[in-house]
Design goal:
Blueprint lengths: L2 H14 L15 H12 L4 E4 L6 H8 L3 E6 L2 H10 L7 E3 L5 H8 L4 E6 L10 H14 E11 L11 E4 L1 E4 L3 H10 L3 E12 L9 E11 L5 H12 L1
Parallel strand pairs: 1-2, 1-4, 2-3, 4-5
Antiparallel strand pairs: 5-9, 6-7, 8-9
């Protein structure tokens, strides 16, 4: 296409849009459960919910309230015990697992397949380094069945002044860049359905004497079945 024709098409498009088109689809807030319900309808996603790093179990309990078949994991026994006390309905739905450990993840996978895999609250940022973070991300992908949804929160370098590789707030958080996140999404064959930022200001604590402004990126990803081209590439890779 000639450059003049391309520019004319662009001009025609923008002359034809309504004044409110750019803002008409921007929601004032993002509701996780409404988004998941919509994607489940549109993409034929099931109701088996896996949460890794579920902490005290509040989100897993909410998932039960929304009709999901829930399994929640955490690496800390104390947190699993707290979750069981706070939400007795979760007692038979808890499992100790480290998202970065292949054996632990395989044990969780044996209870699958899972329709929705969630790692909220910067679970992957607890990695020792970028390589371990990438391993944890790939474990999340592996735990989801074909057509599953992944919901992941990440503190990202570009959301902090100076783009640091790590931040300290009670403990060290490893920060991937947007470029690393994009590579992980592409290499896993995922489709990015939704992304938005979360913000929370934490007050000073004995371990960290300043307020901490936590900025996270929440992404909703779709693990779509491989098309013919992706299957062909996978076949070539396996024969190599």
């Amino acid at each position: 296409m000639r450059e003049a024709d391309r520019r004319r098409e662009i001009t025609t498009y923008y002359l034809g849009i309504s004044p409110d088109e750019i803002s008409s689809h921007v929601a004032a807030s993002f509701d996780l459960w409404e988004s998941l319900a919509r994607y489940r309808r549109e993409l034929a996603v099931g109701a088996r919910w896996l949460e890794l790093g579920g902490g005290m179990g509040d989100l897993a309990a909410a998932a039960l309230d929304h009709g999901y078949d829930v399994l929640m994991t955490d690496v800390q026994d104390e947190l699993l015990e707290t979750a069981a006390r706070r939400h007795p309905r979760l007692r038979a739905r808890l499992q100790r697992a480290d998202v970065f450990d292949a054996r632990a993840v395989a044990a969780v996978g044996a209870r699958g397949p899972f329709s929705i895999v969630a790692a909220l609250g910067a679970v992957l940022n607890h990695a020792r380094d970028g390589k371990q973070l990438a391993r944890g991300f790939r474990h999340l992908v592996a735990l989801g069945e074909p057509r599953s949804l992944l919901v992941v929160d990440l503190l990202v370098r570009e959301m902090f002044a100076g783009h640091p590789a790590t931040v300290w707030a009670d403990f060290l958080h490893v920060l991937p860049g947007l470029d690393q996140l994009a590579r992980l999404i592409r290499s896993s064959g995922l489709q990015l359905l939704e992304a938005y930022s979360l913000f929370h200001r934490y007050p000073p604590t004995p371990a960290y004497d300043r307020a901490f402004d936590e900025r996270m990126l929440r992404v909703v990803l779709h693990k779509s079945p491989p098309g013919p081209r992706r299957r062909a590439r996978a076949g070539k890779s396996s024969r190599a």
